[in-house]
Write a structure and sequence with these properties.
The chain is mainly alpha-helical. It has three domains: 3-62, no CATH class; 65-143, DNA polymerase, domain 1 (Orthogonal Bundle); 170-388, hpI Integrase, Chain A (Orthogonal Bundle), CATH 1.10.443.10. The chain has helices spanning 38-53, 57-62, 65-74, 80-96, 107-118, 124-143, 170-183, 185-198, 202-206, 249-277, 307-318, 324-329, 340-351, 356-363, 368-375, 382-395; strands at residues 3-5, 11-20, 26-30, 217-220, 223-227, 230-234, 243-246. The protein starts with a strand and ends with a helix.
């Protein structure tokens, strides 16, 4: 048999590779982890034979944990805007995970790493990220025959925190939109409208081209995010994020009105430039209007808005005198994030009776369970409304 009991009382597997070294002796592969029983060692032997037969024995002994992480991240196809976040996470992991051969890494190493992560003074979601990333990397390595088994396969994730999003019912959402239209039309109204009534992310709204927005629908194709030093069009977060969102008539009318407003602003900017040219000291510098084709732009010169600008405008608007009457009646609005308009859309769409699969696709999510537990939470009366529809069905 190719298993033996070491003086330390543990069982090991050892098999020949069938190849001779420079001295003419056969080379062997030995399991690195001792087992308490002979049966467990025999299972290790079977796995070693599969790897030796597949000429994978050398791979098992070469790759180390930090290199494994780097190789795994290279397969992810990370967007430029999120690469910095991932690099920070990987660097954090490397400080806590020993850089030993991946094959020598045991479940005890993984548990020690998990405990080290949980002691880090960071948010619970960061704990989950640092642990789940290691689990995914070792699972990928096992699937690609770099290691026999993933030592992280049984590593438990911290309990997921309750969703932080705020979900505002439709009547209150419409009050916010009406206030924004009256007092912050050019700065805030359109992103609040498309987030709260179509479920778009703010970066997706800023990335819309004029041709992407018609009377019937909005086609989401890009994000407009800050990468390196300046905002630019970036790929979407996932493949599912590329979608076409139909417009309800009320939103379609607002979009038509906004396009007319921007067209008038464009005309006024050109006329102002022509008048300025008549002055003797006029210096012809930048163009009067940015013709890059964005939909949501500054009315003065047509430049596209950036996500950070819109977020600042929302924070200021919440503290403005115009919003105080509404916040006095609903104090929770003081903590409402810009992204919560998207959360509210998901919950209101569910309340309207839309299947969760449709809500998932309209929001641009990949996992309907994530949509159900985070974005489309039941509003007050959602279940009663569903049972009322069921009662009408029974009456028929």
């Amino acid at each position: 048999m190719s298993v033996f009991k070491n003086p330390n009382g543990l069982w090991y597997a050892r098999i020949s590779t069938g190849q001779k070294n420079e001295k003419g002796n056969y080379t062997y592969v030995t399991s690195k982890h001792g087992r308490k029983s002979r049966g467990d060692a025999l299972m290790d032997e079977a796995e070693l034979r599969v790897f030796v037969a597949s000429n994978k024995a050398d791979t098992l002994t070469r790759i180390r944990n930090h290199e494994l992480l780097d190789r795994y991240m290279a397969t992810k196809g990370i967007r430029k805007t999120t690469a910095k976040t991932y690099r920070s996470a990987v660097n954090h992991i490397k400080r806590l995970l020993p850089d030993i051969p991946a094959r020598d890494t045991t479940t005890m190493h993984m548990e020690a790493y998990r405990q080290a992560v949980l002691q880090e003074p960071v948010a619970t979601c960061t704990h989950r990220t640092l642990i789940s990333l290691v689990k995914a990397a070792f699972t990928w390595a096992a699937d690609n025959d770099m290691i026999i088994k993933s030592p992280a396969r049984n590593m438990k994730l911290p309990v997921k925190a309750e969703p932080a999003g705020m979900h505002v019912e439709m009547s209150l959402l419409q009050e916010i939109l009406n206030t924004a239209k009256t007092y912050r039309y050019s700065q805030l109204y359109i992103p609040l409208l498309l987030a709260g009534m179509c479920g778009l992310r703010i970066s997706e709204i800023c990335g819309l081209q004029d041709k992407d927005v018609t009377a019937d629908c909005v086609q989401v194709r890009y994000n407009f995010l800050r990468a390196d030093s300046a905002p630019s069009l970036q790929p979407l977060k996932t493949k599912a994020a590329a979608r076409v969102v139909p417009l309800i008539p009320a939103v379609s009318r607002e979009i038509k009105e906004y396009k007319g407003f921007i067209k008038a602003c464009h005309k006024a900017a050109l006329q102002a430039r022509m008048e300025a040219k008549k002055n003797p000291g006029f210096l012809d510098g930048d163009a009067p209007w940015d013709d890059s084709g964005f939909f949501f732009v500054f009315p003065k010169d047509g430049r596209p808005h950036a996500k950070e600008y819109v977020e600042r405008q929302w924070k200021r608007f919440k503290m403005s005198p115009e919003m105080q009457p509404l916040i006095s009646k609903h104090p929770e609005l003081a903590k409402m994030r810009l992204h919560d308009f998207r959360h509210s859309f998901g919950s209101n769409l569910r309340y309207a009776g839309a299947p969760i699969e449709d809500v998932t696709e309209i929001l641009g999510h990949t996992d309907s369970n994530f949509t159900r537990t985070t974005y489309a939470l039941p509003m007050q009366g959602t279940h009663e409304r569903s049972m009322a529809r069921f009662a009408k069905l029974c009456e028929k």
